[in-house]
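Exam revision sheet. Question 4 asks you to relate a sequence to its structure. Input first:
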Amino acid sequence: MDDYGLILSFPSADKGWLMLIPDHGMNSSPGDLYRTDDGGDDWQLVNSTDKNPHTEENYEQASEPDFENPHPYLVCDGSIAFQNASNGWLFGSLASTTPAFLFETRDAGQTWQVEKFPLPPSLHNGRIEPWELPHFFGNDGIVGTHFVSTNNDSTNFCTVIYNTHDGGKTWQAATPVKFGGVWNFISAKIGWMWSPEPHNTTSTAPVKGILYRTDDGGGLWKPMQADNGLKKYLTHGEDIVQLDFVDEDCGWAIARDWRNVTQLLHTTDSGQTWNAVQTKMQK
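Answer key, structure tokens:
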């Protein structure tokens, strides 16, 4: 197994899926999907990109009329997440230089279809690009996407959270957040998002941004208080690259600059105030 990449998803103790990706295919499409029903003792091949008839210039199939139809093969490899014994998602690209797609299966991986997200009424002349797998809390779930304008104008860039209440059969757009960056939800309703203004990632100039919180799945985003907030730690080009909350009050953030120098930050009041954590790394 040294020459392969492995991606696992277990929705229960006995049922699970494994995506097997050859190392030489990590930036293209080769991959095999296996399933186990006995906790990993035995695995059966469910599907493979070898069944894809588009063996050459695989990325061009995205422009064909039937691309949005169900496929009886894996279109590409990628990360996987299964909600139960039947429903799962795959997030991957047809080539290393093309946008990623989110594919859905409702028959345990036998067929896969591109997940489509309706454009919010407030956004025009652009497309929605998912950038991760869905996160589920029972039948309720959320997935993060980007709105990309047709003219690639960065000032029109938005992050849009989509909600589902039927296990991913249908998705509804929440209120878009201008720019938008990393985010974290502790439930289908409560979450935070860091929204930095466009900036040069190699600059040492202060990064300006707003930390938002939502209590209704993204319908309303409320800015957190600026006093002793995140901007205190973003004075020399640092940006927030990760948020991780464990409950409504306690959370962590990672600030990182262009030299990869990182700082761990901690809040105990839902993100209103932050303090630097002095970390001790033991070998």
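Marking note for examiners. The chain has a mean pLDDT of 89.
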